[in-house]
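Recap from last week: sequence in, structure out.
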Amino acid sequence: MPVRLTRRQLLAGTAATAGLLLLRTPGAWAAPPAAPRVGYGPDAARSLRLAWSTPGPVRDLRAEVGLDGSLGRVVPVETRAVVGSPVRYHHVLIDGLDPATEHSYRLSHAGGAVSGTATTAPTAAVPFTFVAFGDQGDGAEAAAVGASIRNIAPDVVFVVGDLSYASKTGGLTPNLPELIPPTVDHAVWDRWLGLVSGAGGAATPWLAGVGNHEMEDGQGELGYDGYLARVPLPGNGPPGVPTAWTARHGNVAFVNLDANDVSYEIARNRGWTGGAQTAWLGRTLAALRADPTIDWIVTGFHHCAYCSNAVHGSDGGVRDAWGALFDEHEVDLVVNGHNHCYERAHPVRGGEVVREVANGGSWASSRGTTYITAGGGGQAAYPTFLPGVSYVTQGGIGLKVPELTTWSAVADPVSSVLAIDVVPPGADGTTELRLRAVTPTGAVIDRLTLTRNRTRPTLPPVGPRGTAPRLRVSLG
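Predicted structure tokens:
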């Protein structure tokens, strides 16, 4: 049986992942390796992860990598299983690589083989494009979003949770498998993995975090066993918290967080890291902002810090836990999902709107953080925006407190992804993030340019570390 870890074991870091099973591959299948996918290892410039699946146990499992089309290195394979599914999920970590280098790979077993290429991240500031979004699923609209991503041809894809929707409960049922039968449709997961692979994930790193729908019934105490078995992760977060991690590509640092840990709206996994994730976040942001070669910090997590959509609104838990840290360390961009829509907030600092920035405008990023809900990845749209007012969920009892949404800049329920072109520093030291929200038809519903200059001093921190910023609105 798969190893199922307790919450205490995860926190203590006594095992690498939940749902781990090392197999001796007793059988053989005629089907070739399915859904090959690329991710980054602990150091994105020097390590890669590959993941793929087979219908069941296989014989003569092998992973080979090399340069210039050659395959001179055999890499150990780790095989994982998921309770309730016959499919086996295979992972390899390839380390000791050179930055910004394309590597060939071949994944094989007695029933077939698949080949591809994967490229390590650059350490120097170079032009590149990344895509960020959440809430995809495996339906027709999700496939259209996948095709859109393939057309954009990004260098990195950042998915902020609610990946496959194999579980429809979204963490809203108690974890009592002996009383409540598991409701996970494992075939949905496998279709989503195939969608990712076909949308470019066989060559482009897809960095995928958890949302509330990754808390699956019957998949371990946290519900994460299925996610951890299927999705390749960098593995460089706080000990015992595999769902938090960082990845650097050029002059951009990506920081992924598990918002289930701090959400006021959905209590299932609230507090599960015992504060370890937030402490790690503070240390990580401080180190990233002190690094002169990193200009941009992009943070992603599922629950919305600022969204006026009436389905989920804003989550005061993420504001209280992390808002002051984002201010203190000048996080440039926060990407959320959860609400199935697009919404950009005007830049916020200290819980207040710093300046209104219209569609097509620009903003000096060190002066305030831009929060974007990019939950239009393919699930049914949430068209329920209330003009000028929404709510924020507060406190341990999930109280929905009304608030004016003076921070809302652009909102649209249509499916879309956030595509971002990174412009490295020029002669004057100025670097840019050129953002556009793109629908599957190619229409652009919002544009924004963020600027940052290496030679100019940044602003002092707002308030003491740990102070929870509150949005203050004058009622006249």
